[in-house]
Amino acid sequence: MTEASYNDIAEWYDRFLQERPVYSEVILPNVLELVGTFQGEHICDLACGQGWVARELARRGAQVTGIDLAPQLLALARRYEEREPLGILYLQGDAQVAEPLSDNSFTGCVCVMALINIPDLQAVFQNVRRILKPGGWFVFAITHPCFETPHAQWTTLPHPEHTIARVVTGYFDERRWFSSNPNGLRGRVGDYHRTLSTYLNTLSGAGFALERAIEPPPSARQAELVPGNQEIPTLLLIRARAI
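and the corresponding structure tokens:
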């Protein structure tokens, strides 16, 4: 399998987001719930990609700045902004450095399904803390680190009657990995698997306090596509506050 970057697959990724109900029907509503208030908020969408979350935040009254490393994804985001002007500013930069962003300049920051693709988690959390105003909030969404391990797979138990279960192995093996599915995102760009404690301890070490966590159930359409999601959460969303 040929390894790709998001820049290599920008157009494909844009279609992928639109075709998978998990993004619009599960991830987005829970991100918006954790963000809460929008009016008057100056929000950074970190690793914003083609701007799908940035646009939803801006439509609800937030002032949004998006930053991403991939120029082709930013080109798509700016194209959407031209079609529907929402006042979103898009900048190119690495989330691990976030050099275009000033200290203490945002009331909140979101990072949706991107931490799993970034090598240096500690650097990202420290930069989020740097760009937030005192007391600012941070919302992020990731694949669930307890159930989305490199070798995890669905299985069906004979008793009780045909229950779908998740087989998890290699949980403590923190590393980058690729799926064997050539049609999936993880099969193209890979993920960094980390334990739940690594996420929480790194978050705390960067100066954040956990406020809320969501392990969302599936939407009806997502449950049809992945029946096991009715038994096991495969997503984790966190809201934390800078202290």
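(Above: one complete record from the training split.) The chain has a mean pLDDT of 95.
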